[in-house]
Amino acid sequence: MEQQQQQLENYETTTEAPNEELKEVFDRLKTHFPPAKVKKIMQTDDDIGKVSQATPVIAGRALEFFIALLVKKSGDVARKNGTKRITADVLKQTILTDEKLDFLRENVCGEEEPTTEPSV
Questions:
Q1: What pLDDT, on the 0 to 100 scale, is given for residue 113?
Q2: Domains detected in the chain
Q3: What pTM did the predictor assign?
Q4: Distance (Å, whole) CA 101 – CA 108
Q5: Which end of the chain is more exposed for a tag (fewer CB within 10 A), N or C?
């Protein structure tokens, strides 16, 4: 685990500075998904065979980062709407309005495309 942290620090110093929003979310992460559970979930798929030791750690970390980003953006939308809670409607609105989350749109609203024109 220490070696992976060192590799991450080396990667951060050798690449360009990330977007400030993403850096803020990354620095505040305190949740961790156990690699054993991630590996177990990954192996429920019949197409996945053997999994290297680092794969569940990386997949878990990516999941943590994604969830933190989704919660941050949803919190921003909730505040903009004048509420303090992140509800399913707030999550849906976040997914429908954020370009980075467009891959989730079909899961949120079925086959329909979000309307881009304001309702009258």
A1: 54
A2: 2-109 (1.10.20.10)
A3: 0.65
A4: 11
A5: C
